[in-house]
UniProtKB/TrEMBL annotation:
Database matches in CDD domains: VOC_Bs_YwkD_like (cd08352)
Keywords noted in UniProt: Metal-binding
SUPFAM superfamilies recorded: Glyoxalase/Bleomycin resistance protein/Dihydroxybiphenyl dioxygenase (SSF54593)
Domain (VOC) ranges: 3-126
Superkingdom, natural source: Bacteria
Protein name as annotated: Glyoxylase I family protein
Keyword Metal-binding set for record: yes
Organism: Maribacter sedimenticola
Length: 126
């Protein structure tokens, strides 16, 4: 294996999630495709030119439990240079971060926000 290629996310409201991942997180659109046969959008997104997320929409996707610690993907994490700056940016977009925590093993600062479907997103300071 070489690296993680991408993470796929199914959203409940495509336009709201698209706006969140582009405007709040600052990801860049690589390609957007409407798949008529599946009534589904597929949006490929990049971070700093690297393909990282496939955002999908499907008609009536079932809800997935994420809390308390449900089995499955726990969260999506992004490395950041300045945690305070990303928290301020999120706040300016009306997205509130949890209180900053300190990793007990690395002593690095991190926090979480939630995407429009309550998927936990972590920002971990470099």
């Amino acid at each position: 294996m070489n690296k993680v290629h991408h993470t796929a996310i199914i959203c409940s409201n495509y336009e709201i999630s698209k706006k969140f991942y582009i405007d709040v997180l600052g990801l860049e659109i690589i390609r957007e495709v409407y798949r008529k046969e599946r009534q589904s959008y597929k949006l490929d997104l990049a971070l700093n030119g690297n393909y990282v997320i496939e955002l999908f929409s499907f008609p009536n996707p079932p809800k997935r439990p994420s809390r308390p610690e449900a089995c499955g993907l726990r969260h999506l994490a992004f490395e950041v240079d300045d945690l305070d700056k990303i928290i301020a940016h999120c706040k300016s977009q009306h997205v509130i971060a949890e209180p900053i925590r300190i990793d007990e093993h690395t002593h690095k600062r991190f926090t979480f926000i939630a995407d429009p479907d309550e998927l936990p997103i972590e920002f971990y300071e470099k």
